[in-house]
Specification:
By secondary structure, this protein is mostly helical. The longest helix has 29 residues. The chain starts with 14 loop residues before the first helix and ends in a 7-residue tail after the last helix. It has 20 helices and no strands.
């Protein structure tokens, strides 16, 4: 007896399933990074079997790359529309503060997921060529947008990079829970930058004072004020935590991972540190203070207004450079800490502390700068924020270009804040 031949046919691809997987991956990537966006969690959120990830994308990493790519394209389209609106309006310099504050607030709150995915994509660039390409496109779109629109407000394209760096950084320096405090923080810093860029220091002064009050209040209220134990075991734990941060990111920073990396008992991490928040804070402060010591050892104490721009640029930049042009691992650990604190509401105390204390060290160094007006604590705060934002451009640049970019951007920040032309002495 002859039986009819049977064939197994594969169901045709379903666009709605593919789109659901991308949307779910983007949401989980934003909240938890590469490790937090597990295949099982993506499948559950998309109401699709885990096997669908391999069917449509080949791997989880390829799906996350696609989610990052689609988010980057949507972000670029948003900036293009913003640029069209600016060109269509009768803009004038007086509108800069309001416009820039609204743009940054939109980025920090309404487009929070895009902000987080962009930051993580830049960090993943060192670990994946696919993410590196997306990070470059993201950086190009952002810097190009500000170079295009800032002349409409009376700001030269050469000075636009500071606005791009600020726009990149400040949405990452607010607690994950939105509210009036978050809005006030973003608006105040954006208005101060816009005012100083236009030489309107008198108008900017009230915003500077507001920033300083908010920073002081945040520092007083943080929940992680405990002192770091000064013991050999505690230092081994922090060494191990730093290595995990650099290699695997903040999502991998568990007590077990730290104890295994540091070669100490698991109980020691919980006995010496009151939770992950405390370990993250202590690790960040240890790295940060290491940079401080390098800067202070490299240059002796100088009297006020004694350094030229050239000397100041060198004294601020040299400790961050490496001969091979690679980004120092400690800076990666600091960025991972900011990203972790931005994502997790339970780390809001850490985030407020990180944001409130930016510029503390550079404020003293800036006093030695020879400038048209005396540098303030808030100038140092803005310099520090923009230096953080610049890291994304450095990650996207060829290693041989990074040294030049860092110095050019520092000169631009000085020119924006103090009204000097880049390169002036």
């Amino acid at each position: 007896m002859m039986f009819p031949e049977t064939t197994t046919t594969q169901a045709p691809p379903q666009p709605e399933v593919r789109n659901a997987l991308v949307d779910a991956a983007a949401s989980l990537f934003a909240r938890g990074g590469v490790r937090g966006a597990t295949a099982r969690a993506i499948g559950t959120a998309a109401a699709a079997p885990v096997s669908a990830i391999n069917y449509y994308f080949g791997s989880k990493e390829a799906l996350l790359v696609e989610a990052a790519r689609q988010t980057q394209r949507a972000d670029a389209a948003w900036l293009e529309e913003e640029a069209r609106q600016v060109q269509a309006l009768e803009t004038e310099p007086a509108l800069l503060s309001d416009w820039f504050a609204a743009l940054c607030l939109n980025r920090a709150v309404a487009r929070q997921d895009s902000t987080l995915i962009a930051a993580d994509t830049a960090l993943q660039a060192a670990r994946s060529d696919a993410f590196a390409g997306i990070a470059r496109d993201w950086d190009t779109a952002t810097t190009g947008f500000f170079a295009e629109v800032m002349p409409a407000f009376g700001i030269s394209p050469e000075k636009a990079s500071m606005f791009a760096d600020f726009f990149t950084a400040v949405p990452l320096m607010v607690p994950s829970a939105s509210g009036t405090a978050t809005s006030a923080w973003v608006i105040s810093t954006a208005r101060y930058l816009a005012g100083t860029a236009q030489g309107r220091w008198h108008d900017a002064a009230p915003w500077r004072e507001r920033i300083e009050r908010m920073a002081s209040a945040a520092d007083r209220q943080r929940a992680d004020r405990g002192a770091v134990p000064d013991t050999p075991t505690a230092q081994r734990i922090l060494d191990g935590a730093t290595r995990v941060l650099i290699r695997d990111g903040a999502a991998a920073l568990t007590h077990r991972a730290i104890s295994e990396e540091a070669g100490v008992a698991l109980s020691a991490t919980t006995r010496l540190f009151d939770g992950r928040d405390a370990i993250l804070r202590a690790t960040f402060e240890r790295i940060y203070l290491g940079f401080v010591r390098e800067i202070e050892e490299q240059r002796p104490a100088l009297p006020p207004a004694s350094q030229s721009v050239d000397d100041f640029v060198e004294s601020m930049s040299e400790p961050l450079d490496r001969a091979d042009g690679q980004i120092r691992p400690e800076l990666t650990a600091m960025e991972e800490t900011f990203l972790a604190a931005r994502r997790d509401p339970e780390l809001s105390g850490l985030m407020l502390h990180l944001a409130a204390t930016r510029g503390t060290t550079s404020a003293g160094l800036m006093a030695s700068l020879k400038s048209p007006r005396a540098p303030t604590r808030t100038d140092a705060f803005l310099m520090s924020i923009c230096a953080f934002g610049m890291m994304r451009s450095l990650r996207c640049a060829p290693p041989e270009r990074r040294r030049t970019i860092s110095r050019e951007r520092l000169r631009t920040r000085l020119a924006v804040l103090f009204g000097e032309e880049p390169g002036a002495v």
